[in-house]
TrEMBL record:
Specifically dimethylates two adjacent adenosines (A1518 and A1519) in the loop of a conserved hairpin near the 3'-end of 16S rRNA in the 30S particle. May play a critical role in biogenesis of 30S subunits. One of its GO terms (cellular component) is cytosol. HAMAP family: 16SrRNA_methyltr_A. GO terms for molecular function: 16S rRNA (adenine(1518)-N(6)/adenine(1519)-N(6))-dimethyltransferase activity; RNA binding. It comes from Hasllibacter halocynthiae. It is an enzyme of class 2 (transferase). This is Ribosomal RNA small subunit methyltransferase A.
Amino acid sequence: MTPDPLPPLRQVIAAHGLAPRRSLGQNFLLDLNLTAKIARIGGGPAGMDLLEVGPGPGGLTRALLAEGARRVLAVEKDARAIPALAEIAAAYPGRLEVVEGDALDGGHLGRLDPPIRIAANLPYNIGTELLVRWLTPPAWPPAWRDMTLMFQREVADRITAAPGSKSYGRLAILAQWRSEARIALTLPPEAFTPPPKVRSAVVHVVALDAPRFPADPGVLQRVTAAAFGQRRKMLRQSLKPLAPDAEDRIRAAGIAPTQRAETVSVEGFCALARAFAP
Ligand code: SAM
């Protein structure tokens, strides 16, 4: 790692008037040792193109560049942060492109070259929505190779949950069907400025070349939505709205119609998706 030539982040925040705004989910990481640790998750970004969502004052951005990222495309909604990010771009010529805009508008991944990593200390209000989009592209494998994403600990648990646990649901199935998802780091509130109310965790998600089990993504989404929409009910009840012969289809998938959604594995849900295919 080459030394970061830029001033400390507190100085950057003061110089650019970047007082954190709650409306933008701004909880900044100011410790460059910590951002370096996050940048190195999944083997470091050397030789990769990265999409970073919500760079803010640029702590993680700086770490990604210092750790050797080939190119970072950083999408930031807060216009106040753009001049601070421009200083980072000047320190790493040709390697950082800053886009002022809303990450929810999408279209950014298409501008990068593989291998692509998505890295973000996400605003909590849009984190789950972006994750679901990245996990459900029109075709698989996706444009990204892996993702290093900060979430509230509770959301990280839902992404990595095993069947039978109370966090297990739609998010776990979406994340684990075609990817490897693990919690790489947990962080106390004090790691952020200002500290959020809850603990956070960095989740590392690696795309598999092919799904673990065959299933149509649309049907799988419908089945998991119906099953977990009424997670306390038996499947024969919760899946009934999907087909009049739901009970037969559940049996054909090798699942007991009296099971509840949270006891069915990812493999089981893929079998259900095949059984409920039109
Ligand atoms: N990455 C920085 C860090 O780790 O210190 C900032 C993280 S802060 C939790 C979230 C960042 O996302 C803020 O800079 C915020 O302005 C930005 N943001 C919020 N909503 C956004 C959106 N829809 N699109 C792009 N950036 C957004």
